[in-house]
Amino acid sequence: MPFTMTAAALKIDHLGKRFGATAAVDDLSLEIAPGEIFGLLGPNGAGKSTTINMITGVTRPQTGSVSVFGYDNRRQALIARRLVGVMHQEIVIDHFFTVRQAIRIHVGYYGLPDDPGWRATLIERLGLGPHLAKPLRELSGGMKRRFMIAKAMIHKPRLLILDEPTAGVDIELRRSLWEFVREINGQGTTVLLTTHYLEEAEKMCGRIAIMNRGRLVALEGKETLLNRLGGRRLIVTLAQPLATLPAALAEDRSLLSWDPDHLTFAVAGPGAVGERLRRLALGGLHIADLDMRKPDLEEVFLQLTGNGNHHPAAEP
Amino acid sequence: MTGPLPLPPFQPWLPFLTLLKREVLRFLRVSFQTLLAPVITASLYLFVFGATLGQRISVLEGFSYAQFVIPGLILMGIINNSFANTSTSLFMSRYLGNIVDLLVAPITAPQLILAYTLAAMLRGMLVGAVITLIALGFAPLPWVYPGLGLVMALLSSFLFAQFGLIAAIHANTFDALSMFTNFLLLPLIYFGGVFYPVSILPPFWEGLSRCNPLFYLIDGFRFALLGSGDNPFWLSFGISAAMAGGLFLWAALLIATGYRLRN
Description:
The structure holds 2 protein chains of 2 kinds.
Chain A: E1 10-19, E2 22-32, E3 37-41, H1 48-56, E4 63-68, E5 71-72, H2 77-83, E6 84-87, H3 99-109, H4 116-125, H5 141-153, E7 159-163, H6 171-186, E8 190-194, H7 198-204, E9 207-212, E10 215-221, H8 222-227, E11 232-238, H9 247-250, E12 255-258, E13 262-267, H10 272-282, E14 287-293, H11 297-304
Parallel strand pairs in A: 3-8, 3-9, 6-7, 7-8
Antiparallel strand pairs in A: 1-2, 1-4, 4-5, 9-10, 11-13, 11-14, 12-13
Chain B: H1 14-29, H2 31-52, H3 65-96, H4 100-103, H5 109-135, H6 146-170, H7 174-190, H8 203-209, H9 213-226, H10 233-257
């Protein structure tokens, strides 16, 4: 179903929450359009989970507001909750029930009659079939996480929030989960995703917000964000290990990092690569191999969250 | 042009019915602990007070001790199990974190209270019914006002279901929760006239016992079954109903405001 006639899938307006003296979320505003796969990234303690808890109503904000498809999540809480499915970061399960019972209970909590077709699809896609009769407490960690994904999707939410869905799960589930998320996104479900695996965010998300210490430090399209660092990366593998950095390179601000065997430069503009190679030759260094690649999200992330030691700009 | 999204179909009472079903399934799943154990405990009391002491002593004119104590034991089973059901279930959900499943679902605070309460009442009344059946083997009861007896049993069950919800929200540890049971509920039950009529106590202790809210529940129930009690029925019923209303409002306030449930 197209969403062009609707309000923002998620609108967060000047949201704030403090725990004692610590600002968990500080004046956060952002909008997610219907049909997006949106990434919310940040280091531990950045405020991502608190933000998600405020969206779903588990945590009450001290300032600001949240609306889901035009419905305020406090004044129209019951409607807003029907539209949202959330998979929380922490594994929480109901120890008394089997997988089959728990899934049926969850669809009932959302006021929807059981849809056997959709239930069967979720069970099949998440590989829960052989475990339906098992009590939830007897599932492995990975299976519990699969069950939590099924729980978040069982009422066919319009906005699906996945908080670290692939933490601690095997590669096969990751691959099949992302494939499934793309599929339901293609059918109109908006997705808000947090993950520590930045390559997953890079592959899945159209736009990405980065939070640090409760504040929004970036909110851009993925390509724009990746272009922030400018140019490409030139990785030089040296023929002989380097003990100390030659003077010709020590003052080169485009040198991002080095170890005895490798040098990594930021290069942008015409002649930049040639200039780097000329300086290497001046320093008497012999090259074993050269590699060129684009900067990845991890570099952008580290720079924006203050955990990297990049030079701010590349020299041509 | 923008506007709210058309909503999917919604059955407004289904979240309530689902939670009620979940709560009933929960106690049935551990029925040895939730149904059988309290019945065995009550049966032991019945054996001690019914088959052994019950025929030899009398504390109420015209009735054996067994006949006197049976209404109290039935109500004790109802009260303990109604309290245990809501307090354990809600506390475990908070402790294990799965309370978030309810907090993010479109279920209203009144629906949530009602579902927890009705499941607790069902468990309490089931235990009470089984104890009653067993008790009939020890001593016959006159069943003077059976309808009023049912009302008092339901009222007691409702009241302690609310108290269980309140305890589960206020307690942050298992120790704190067990304090509600061991240091509040049990003394109130034992000093509330289950095992003796408070009118036989010295005036000071009788006066103190009359401050115990449990006394009115037990006395009203006993009056309904035996036709004799320490208070007129209307007084026992009125005080019990007022307490039930007060505790319901307290529990409703806690749940509606999300106290200790939502951050």
